[in-house]
Amino acid sequence: MEIKKKLRKILEEIRYQSERVLGCTYWIHIGDLLTPCEGNITAGQYFVTSRVLDIETMRTGGTPKWQNLLTDKILGNTRTEKEKIKADKNFQLLVESLESRGLNPNIAKCSISDNPVVLNNGTHRVGWCVLYAPNMYVPCIRNRNDLKPWFPIEGKGYFEKYLDRDQLHILENRFNKILEEGEVRSELTAYIECGKADIMEKVINEYGKMIDNCEIIVDGCILKCFRFRLNKQFLFTEKNMIYSKYVREMERRLNGDGIIAHTVTKSIEIENWLEEKSGEQLFSNN
Question: CA–CA separation, 281 vs 286, rounded Å?
Fold first, then answer.
């Protein structure tokens, strides 16, 4: 049995590394997975929120409620009580494993769609990360044989068929709290030469909301840096990279001036680079 486990681990690692070489695996910040698509909370994000609520219940010794409730509603109460108890037990074991070992970054267990980029599977793990590791980069696989979203992008319409108004309201409120109270980052970063800052500010205000800004000096050049939140986001893959439809539009408006991160993942990378080059902290709320 021990040999089988070791062999399975080796095979999983080989598969992970091969997919990485082929450009199918992405390290994605939790914030990108939880940013609404076209202003809509996706069905996948509703599922993640339900996992968050269940894990919070388990924290206090309670039994998860939402996992079986949603499964029964969607599948139509086809499972036995024994199967439901087993599902709860497996959920509990997963959470205990994550709490003791953390999320294993060497083996990608989450999968994403292609266009738009949304979470297809791995909602339990992402739900755990929201509570315990909100700055986590999750390894996600884009399976070339399964590129479409598994569930509708407009999650509210999907779940209205299965949940009553109060249940839906609970999920929506908890999801909004995750983003609005900063439990998970959703802001993007941009910068431009200080003399052209007005152009960048105008474009940002047309497409989103300014959160913070500052000036720094990099290689003798004064840069104006911005942190902002888009009104709408839509991520897609192109040549094995992840881009934002709306940031693309902003870039066209800027005619090549300045740099705008397409994702939260890239924003953090840019901020780290700017701080290293300038020797200064960018934003007061880092």
Answer: 8
